[in-house]
Amino acid sequence: MQVIIFDNAQQVAENAAEWVAELINKKTNPVLGLATGSTPISLYQELVNKHKAGELSFTKTTTFNLDEYLGIDETNVQSYRHFMNENLFDHVDINKDKTFLPTCAQGENPRQQGLDYENKIQQAGGIDLQILGIGANGHIGFNEPTSSLASRTRIKTLTQQTLDDNSRLFAADEFQPTLAMTMGIATILDARYVLLMATGKNKAKAVKDMVTGALSAVCPASALQLHENAIVLLDKEAASELEDHEYYVWADKQNNKINQEFGLYHNY
Ligand code: PGA
Predict the structure, then answer these.
(1) Which of 12, 34, 39 to mutate to test the pocket of ligand 1 (most atoms within 8 A of CB)?
(2) What's residue 265's pLDDT?
(3) I want to staple 180 with a disulfide (CB 3.0 to 4.6 A). Which of 11, 29, 99, 142 is the partner?
(4) Residues that are catalytic
(5) pLDDT value for 263
(6) Which domains does the chain have, with CATH numbers?
(7) Whole-angstrom distance, CA of residue 115 vs CA of residue 185
(8) Beta-bridge partner residues of 162
(9) Contact, 50 vs 83, CB < 8 A?
């Protein structure tokens, strides 16, 4: 796991945007895994800025989002489709026919929908770079604690902590879904690179459990310890419970030296 610690959340977003831009500019048919939540909003803002500056075109890019709520359709402002349109898709030149979320409408079989989503990812050539946030409870996507580390796209019941964490986004009298479709942990681990962004003090414990805790379904993000190319971008607050703080800063300097000498090399 490559842990990189930045002074603030804006620098995390700028660095994440560099990773995405490198993939999109390098690969003929890039496949990008996307996340919702508060954390990636500033990343999407950076990508929109790059697009408007003429530095980035999404016409060849296919995207797969991690998750989507059940019980609301895509016209609902609380849907993750709506979130993606608002924060990214409506502001760049992406072909929306190549943007996918794991949906399951009323009457559709969630098991079949999960299988179909996995197949769609395979047919696109697999995910090159998966963007991730992390829940205060260590979830990635909506893989809540106790999720199988070998799980695939499926329906998940959200935990009370996740519902409480996200309740700030819903009005008091608004329906808040308790079920979601989510990529599984094995689906995420199949991505060639995973890039996890975490900012703020309320993520510090989950970050510590992910990076230095036991590999355990109690902290689903700890599964990233098994990934060959897991990059973790943190601000100082999210990194504040890591004991080896100075080691990560030192290791990052060494990596930068190698990058300067040999150039960036990501095997997409
Ligand atoms: P947040 O959510 O970015 O809104 O904190 C992250 C997550 O739950 O994965």
Answers:
(1) 39
(2) 74
(3) 142
(4) 67, 137, 139, 144
(5) 80
(6) 2-262 (3.40.50.1360)
(7) 14
(8) none
(9) no
Name the amino acid, one letter, at 121.
Answer: I
- Note the pLDDT of residue 33: 98
Residue 190 carries which side chain, given as an amino acid letter?
Answer: D
Cα 259 to averaged position of ligand 1 atoms, centre (Å):
30
Instruction: With H, G, I as helix, E, B as strand and everything else as coil, classify residue 60.
Output: coil
> What distance in angstroms lies between residue 89's CA and the mean position of ligand 1's atoms?
19
Contacts 24+ apart (CB under 8 A), 210-219: 210/134, 210/138, 211/1, 211/3, 211/242, 212/242, 212/243, 212/244, 215/149, 217/145, 217/146, 217/147, 217/148, 217/149, 218/138, 218/145, 218/146, 219/138, 219/145
Atom of ligand 1 minimally distant from the CA of 39: 3
Residue length, the chain? Answer: 268
**Mean pLDDT per 10-residue segment, the chain (268 residues):** 97 97 95 97 98 98 97 93 98 98 95 98 98 97 97 96 93 94 98 98 98 97 97 98 92 91 81
Q: Where are the beta strands (DSSP E) in 158-267?
A: 179-182, 193-198, 230-235
Ligand 1 atom 8 nearest Cα:
135
Residues with CB under 6 A from ligand 1: 37-39, 133-135
Radius of gyration of the chain (CA): 18
